[in-house]
Amino acid sequence: MAGPLKGFRIIDLTNVVSGPLGTMMLADQGAEVIKIEHPAGGDFTRAMANRRGGFSASFLNNNRSKKSVALNLKDPRGVAAVLKLAATADAFVQNFRPGVVDRMGLGEAAVRAANPSIVYCSISGFGDKGPYADKPVYDPLVQALSGLTSIQGGSDDARPRLVRTIIPDKLTGYTSAQAITAGLLKRERTGEGQHVKVSMLDSVIDFLWHSDMGSQTFVGGEFAQEKAASFIDLIYETTDGHITVAVNTDKQWKSLTAALERPEWLEDPRFLTPALRHENIDDRLTLTQEVLATDSSAHWLERLETHDVPCAPVLTRSAMIDHPQIRATGIVVELDHPQAGKVRQARPAATFSVSEPDLSHGAPVLGADTDALLASAGFTADEIAALRADGVAGTKEEDAA
């Protein structure tokens, strides 16, 4: 079955995670995504550890459903080939540092000259303005600059802590995919292309504001974030592991006291209203932990579920895969890759009732589609052979095969 974006062609000049994840989302939804890679090695993540069959897990998990064209962009003929491909495309995505892609000859002006109605997306670390615009970027830098590490630390005075997953990179991928799709929708309705700009820093700050920036929301009424129980404190230890329990409403609070057999908490002046329970959250969580530490996870989960208290087990990666809820939704799938063998991945989170994506095409071999796609852009067989002979197109491994 064809995905909802079938018929759109996207040129993908991105590396690592922020760009490749976003374009993989578009590819999974049916777009033809053409990944442009250097003939000598390709995307940086191809060489990362945890490998099988010549593929790293990182590359597999961010480049599914794509095609690969190997072109040397240091050669003007390689740049010309990309522009020729761009002339056939609907969108062009790149995540070079601001200014770099212009010097390569593949900035917005050059690409738009080849295709005036194209949606051109620039992904950057810090944006194209300000003192950080030209700085190299890594996920921890964005976590620090955005305030995320302070939020993760628990207060303005606590030791900042990194989130132990690359949220800025992945969030930027999601933001880019949505923005590109919106640009394509506008183009379908009006015929007009545009330049879409997404930075990792902006993506994270936007993300944080919806739940973590209340202290800075009212102009003139800002206040420092004092130490308070954070989400990590909602993880409770039992005699054989950990569970999480989340209680907000009066009804849920009453149910919790029943499940834990602590009716006296209902009369405690510290916990009479949601506002008081929030104000005295540390006391509330301490008391809850003392009770939950007396028995097993299974015991408490059964009691909590019986009383309709929101709760869940705290799972490791491997335990998550085998949990009945995960199996029921089918979010984790096993797919056959021609080189890497059977791989386990997450399907796209969104499902479609009449245009469900086809995930049978795994991440591509470097340069696997070079000849076919150059031909589709108008190159003759002799021209492609000449580009290969001069090291502009294809890979040495392909030519030796």
Automatic annotation (TrEMBL):
Keywords: Transferase. One of its GO terms (molecular function) is CoA-transferase activity. SUPFAM superfamilies: CoA-transferase family III (CaiB/BaiF). It comes from Thalassobaculum litoreum DSM 18839. This is Crotonobetainyl-CoA:carnitine CoA-transferase CaiB.
